[in-house]
Amino acid sequence: MLPTACQIALKEWAVTVKALDEGEQILLLRKGGIREEGKDFRVLYPEFLLYPTYEHQKEDLLKKGHHKHLQQVLSQAPKQDPIPLTHWAKVEEVIELSAQEEVDTLLPYHVWTQDYAQKRLHWKPRHPLSIMLLRVYRLEEARSVPYLPEYGGCKSWVQFSEEVPLGGLAPVLSEDQFRGSVDQVKEVLGVPV
Fold first, then answer.
1. pTM of the model
2. Dihedrals φ, ψ of 143, to 5°?
């Protein structure tokens, strides 16, 4: 059963949210932000809204085929307030990786360059890189929340001051497409399917 409201959001680049929306990827690579509680990333919530961010995403961090998507999301970026919300996600599984070879095998399954993915792995080297496999849903109707200063900064999780009504949720991928994508990712990582 899907929820009717949500108060938690995960911050992610707007260009990545676009790739999730289009079914081009089902995973996120996470190590945590500079202001992360506990100084490392943890999946604190299994379900959340996707909070699109516009800082730090640059062409040289994305595969060439996604540069046009970056230009598109940057041209549509809100100038300030409010925060646009169009997607809700549920964590299917979290896989922790520590080896560069494992991260390299994921290259066909995300929008980032190999160099960027490797840098994510090697930042804070004592902590593993979390691969979040996400089942993503579109909100029936786009929502927004007013920006508050406590939502800012380099942190992953945001708790909005009020619950956001979700309305109807439509999966980005069919169940078969999603299961097939999960199986592919797990297979290349050598994780039992």
1. 0.90
2. -120, 170
Q: What is the pLDDT of residues 41-53, one digit of tens each?
A: 788 899 999 999 8
Pairing of β 5-13 and β 47-53: parallel
d(CA 85, CA 151): 14
Q: Name the residue range of residue 158's domain.
A: 5-189
Task: Measure the CA–CA gap between 95 and 112, rounded to whole angstroms.
Answer: 18
> How many angstroms separate the CA atoms of 30 and 41, rounded?
7
Our count of domains for the chain comes to: 1
Three-class DSSP labels, the chain: CCCCEEEEEEEEEHHHHHHHHCCCCCEEEECCCCCCHHHCCCCCCCEEEEEEECCCCCHHHECHHHHHHHHHHHHCCCCCCCEEEEEEEEEEEEEEECCHHHHHHCHHHCCECHHHHHHHHHCCCCCCEEEEEEEEEEEEEEEEECCCHHHCCCCCEEEEEEEEECCCEEECCCHHHHHHHHHHHHHHHCCCC
